[in-house]
């Protein structure tokens, strides 16, 4: 009998694996301060984060009544990246229980990967500073490919790089892009409610919701993969 390929769990980064909110707010406010705009708050992040720094800055400026024109954006993105990269890891920390969950999965032979819309170099830098790089078989960012979440190819490309198999993969994330990319790639999804979603995650119709990483076990992942395969086969 051919052994089943190693299962793969793909994590979103901001708001799922790492609590990045304090540093995102700080660097974003540093960025827009040059335009004389009032700072944004943590609550604002739920509808600013999700499509990378560029879109976050654009949305924050619009929120503050200052839609960007013409060539203003690249310099602001540069200002954000310089500030954010210089401060890493700042206040950023893995969410409670996620490292133990990853240890649990790895001890059962699982592969792990990150699929984030954050710029690849920021994602890699942050994971490195937090000593987490060694957990992952692949880390892809919003600028790694020509496409990004919710485009299915961001997830399928991540699976390929991680040496995984699409029928043995689960995606876990905090926002609409994560649940949508999983659906688009025909992979089961798990949602976490503590990240940056502007709607309750149940409204995104993930295959499963966990409220703490204690619940992320090999048994749960196997069950989700099995149930999903059965559903697709009907
Ligand atoms: O930085 C962002 O805007 C999104 O990052 P995420 O895909 O890891 O949530
Ligand atoms: Mg996220």
From TrEMBL:
<keyword id="KW-0460">Magnesium</keyword>
<feature type="active site" description="Nucleophile">
    <location>
        <position position="12"/>
    </location>
</feature>
<dbReference type="GO" id="GO:0006281">
    <property type="term" value="P:DNA repair"/>
</dbReference>
<comment type="pathway">
    <text>Organic acid metabolism; glycolate biosynthesis; glycolate from 2-phosphoglycolate: step 1/1.</text>
</comment>
<comment type="similarity">
    <text>Belongs to the HAD-like hydrolase superfamily. CbbY/CbbZ/Gph/YieH family.</text>
</comment>
<feature type="binding site">
    <location>
        <position position="14"/>
    </location>
    <ligand>
        <name>Mg(2+)</name>
    </ligand>
</feature>
<keyword id="KW-0378">Hydrolase</keyword>
<comment type="function">
    <text>Specifically catalyzes the dephosphorylation of 2-phosphoglycolate. Is involved in the dissimilation of the intracellular 2-phosphoglycolate formed during the DNA repair of 3'-phosphoglycolate ends, a major class of DNA lesions induced by oxidative stress.</text>
</comment>
<dbReference type="InterPro" id="IPR037512">
    <property type="entry name" value="PGPase_prok"/>
</dbReference>
<keyword id="KW-0119">Carbohydrate metabolism</keyword>
<keyword id="KW-0479">Metal-binding</keyword>
<dbReference type="InterPro" id="IPR041492">
    <property type="entry name" value="HAD_2"/>
</dbReference>
<dbReference type="InterPro" id="IPR023198">
    <property type="entry name" value="PGP-like_dom2"/>
</dbReference>
<dbReference type="GO" id="GO:0005975">
    <property type="term" value="P:carbohydrate metabolic process"/>
</dbReference>
<dbReference type="InterPro" id="IPR036412">
    <property type="entry name" value="HAD-like_sf"/>
</dbReference>
<dbReference type="GO" id="GO:0008967">
    <property type="term" value="F:phosphoglycolate phosphatase activity"/>
</dbReference>
<feature type="binding site">
    <location>
        <position position="12"/>
    </location>
    <ligand>
        <name>Mg(2+)</name>
    </ligand>
</feature>
<protein>
    <recommendedName>
        <fullName>Phosphoglycolate phosphatase</fullName>
        <ecNumber>3.1.3.18</ecNumber>
    </recommendedName>
</protein>
<dbReference type="GO" id="GO:0046295">
    <property type="term" value="P:glycolate biosynthetic process"/>
</dbReference>
<dbReference type="GO" id="GO:0046872">
    <property type="term" value="F:metal ion binding"/>
</dbReference>
<dbReference type="InterPro" id="IPR023214">
    <property type="entry name" value="HAD_sf"/>
</dbReference>
<dbReference type="Pfam" id="PF13419">
    <property type="entry name" value="HAD_2"/>
</dbReference>
<dbReference type="GO" id="GO:0005829">
    <property type="term" value="C:cytosol"/>
</dbReference>
<feature type="binding site">
    <location>
        <position position="174"/>
    </location>
    <ligand>
        <name>Mg(2+)</name>
    </ligand>
</feature>
<dbReference type="InterPro" id="IPR006439">
    <property type="entry name" value="HAD-SF_hydro_IA"/>
</dbReference>
<dbReference type="InterPro" id="IPR050155">
    <property type="entry name" value="HAD-like_hydrolase_sf"/>
</dbReference>
């Amino acid at each position: 009998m051919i052994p089943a390929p190693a299962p793969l769990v793909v994590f979103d980064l901001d708001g799922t694996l790492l609590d990045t909110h304090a540093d995102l707010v700080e660097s974003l406010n540093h960025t827009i301060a040059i335009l004389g705009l009032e700072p944004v708050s943590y609550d604002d992040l739920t509808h600013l984060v999700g499509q990378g720094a560029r879109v976050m800055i654009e949305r924050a400026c619009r929120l503050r009544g200052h839609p960007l024109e013409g060539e203003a954006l690249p310099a602001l993105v540069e200002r954000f990246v310089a500030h954010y990269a210089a401060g890493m890891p700042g206040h950023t920390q893995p969410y409670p229980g996620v490292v133990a969950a990853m240890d649990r999965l790895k001890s059962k032979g699982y592969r792990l990967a990150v699929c984030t819309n954050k710029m690849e170099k920021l994602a890699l830098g942050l994971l490195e500073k937090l000593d987490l790089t060694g957990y992952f078989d692949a880390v892809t960012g919003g600028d790694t490919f020509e496409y990004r979440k919710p485009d299915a190819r961001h997830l399928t490309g991540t699976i390929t790089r991680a040496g995984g198999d699409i029928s043995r993969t689960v995606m876990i994330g905090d926002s609409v892009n994560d649940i949508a990319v999983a659906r688009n790639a025909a992979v089961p999804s798990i949602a976490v409610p503590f990240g940056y979603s502007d709607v309750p995650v149940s409204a995104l119709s993930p295959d499963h919701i966990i409220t703490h990483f204690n619940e992320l076990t090999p048994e749960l992942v196997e069950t989700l993969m099995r149930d999903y395969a059965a559903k697709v086969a009907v």
